[in-house]
Amino acid sequence: MAESSVLLCKGCTPWQGILLTASLLNFWLLSTGAHMTTELVPLQVAEGENVLFLAHDLPESLTAFAWFKGLRSTKKGIALYSLYQNVSGPGPVHSGRETIYRNGSLLLEKVTQKDSGFYTLRTYNIRGKLIATTSIYLHVHAFLWKCGRFDISGQPTIESVPPSVAEGGSALLRVRNPPENIIAFAWFKGMTVLKDQEIARYITGRKSPVTGPAYSGRETLYQDGSLLLHGVTRKEPGLYTLRILRTDMKSEAATVQLQVDKPVTQPTAQITETTVAGRRSAILTCISPDTDVSIRWIFNNKTLQLTERMFVSPTKCGLQIHPVKRENAGEYKCEVSNQFSLKTSLPVSLVVTNE
Ligand SMILES: *[C@@H]1O[C@H](CO)[C@@H](O)[C@H](O)[C@H]1NC(C)=O
Ligand SMILES: *[C@@H]1O[C@H](CO)[C@@H](O)[C@H](O)[C@H]1NC(C)=O
Ligand SMILES: *[C@@H]1O[C@H](CO)[C@@H](O)[C@H](O)[C@H]1NC(C)=O
């Protein structure tokens, strides 16, 4: 089935279409340059409340989108919307409390703590190809101090600049819409405002911030509440929470998720023998020091089309062609990728001779 027919196929539900498509896509993890984002409204939610995952800046070329539970799995589909057909459908993990909207947003009603976790929005073009993906973490609190809650209008939020940082780089967690009349700011690692998770606090009027138990020496707290993280390590992605105390003794909190990129290193493609007689077999290996990567084989600069004479190992790092035919002669490369980066090996050539 051509990819373009997948989303449009008659007789199959759009959801089946997407799952078919997803299985064709080895590279659904790669997000493109599109700046699609999502936000939670309200930012903090307690058991029994409703939360809306608002989608912003959907790519223009999209014809379908789907919400998934989790970061990577395409099996935990919640709901799909096909704009082309103007229909939506539930996915395998739809709980009956979710509503998907044409504008990309997803409403989740009567949340429970079990709903906590990552939610991922993926958008597809008319050919069923993934255009962009974005994820957001939902933390469902057992309860919220209502006195600490704030109006949705003008509530403080935090943005990470840049949204995702390379290992060793720096990220500024910047406060937007800070309230007036602030007495103090305090930053915590994670979602909870526990004392031993405190990184640092800043009390207005004092000259310098006070560091807390979770201070690593690589954080700088500014007077406006922003937190600069230097030399970010792979261990540091995750959630950061800012607590703001106001002069009326009310407190507000906002959480941000820091993403740390771990770019892949260039893989090496190897071939056991470069010259192989027809009908013998050729074995290619893709060597990559990285874990959690996807591997793709490239033949003469195009994705390798597997035939019945080709066998790939489960992680795709090994490729065997048996028996080799003349049409298999050419240049082979392998490409490894993760959510943040993609690198291609140098080519290896396969020459096929007569017996
Ligand atoms: C999609 O379908 C709904 C009813 O199911 C209808 O109200 C709406 O106008 C349709 N939108 C488009 C763009 O066709
Ligand atoms: C999308 O639609 C929902 C439901 O109608 C609405 O609450 C939400 O504000 C819309 N989102 C955007 C970004 O317009
Ligand atoms: C693949 O592309 C590279 C760079 O564009 C080019 O040098 C090479 O000759 C191409 N190989 C084949 C087999 O087309």
From TrEMBL:
GO molecular function per UniProt: protein tyrosine kinase binding
Homology family: Belongs to the immunoglobulin superfamily. CEA family.
Biological-process GO terms, alphabetical: regulation of immune system process; signal transduction
Lineage of the organism: Eukaryota, Metazoa, Chordata, Craniata, Vertebrata
One GO cellular component, as annotated: cell surface
InterPro entries referenced in this protein's UniProt entry, alphabetically: CEA_cell_adhesion (IPR050831), Ig-like_dom (IPR007110), Ig-like_dom_sf (IPR036179), Ig-like_fold (IPR013783), Ig_sub (IPR003599), Ig_sub2 (IPR003598), Ig_V-set (IPR013106), Immunoglobulin_dom (IPR013151)
Keywords: Glycoprotein, Immunoglobulin domain, Signal
Gene label: LOC100753084
Lineage top rank: taxon: Eukaryota
Protein name (Swiss-Prot/TrEMBL): Carcinoembryonic antigen-related cell adhesion molecule 3-like isoform X2
Record has Signal as a keyword: yes
Native species: Cricetulus griseus (Chinese hamster)
Gene3D superfamilies the UniProt entry points to: Immunoglobulins
Matching PROSITE patterns: IG_LIKE
One Pfam family it belongs to: ig
Ig-like domain: residues covered: 267-349
